[in-house]
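Hi R.,

Here's the chain you asked about this morning:
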Amino acid sequence: MTSSIRTCLWFRDGRGLEAAEFYCSLIPGSRIEKTFSADAGHGAFSVIDFSLGGVPYQILDAGPMFTLTEAVSISVATDDQAESDRLWAALTANGGEESHCGWLKDRYGVSWQVYPKRLTELTTNADKDVSAKAMAAMMTQMKIDIAAIEAAVRG
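And the predicted structure, written out as tokens:
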């Protein structure tokens, strides 16, 4: 895939290619597209173009000038709870950190939102009672448990 628009993630520790390979191993239809490394007189850097499920990303691994923050995250709406659980476990392993409402930070410092698609159906439901109960239940969770949210909606 060639795309002129990519979300670029700044890495500072030389693990950009490792991260891209890890991400591609988790998401079906993902691949490393191109890598480039050089030293342009200001220090060594590398650029990794890759796609996750067909969505283009880029990692610029270029040293300590900038840090990753939760202000940018990769959002993954999964088909079911099992897929959410699989991704959650892989992304929080080996130093990742859980956060609230389906958010986490992986071992490289990249923030992710991982949740079953059913969550969006419930939280944006036209029935305001359903959406309010779904939102209230979601706000109490770290990893999204869609069965618990559905139970809360049923009352």
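Strands lie at 7-11, 31-39, 44-52, 55-61, 73-78, 97-98, 103-105, 111-116.

Let me know if you need anything else.
M.
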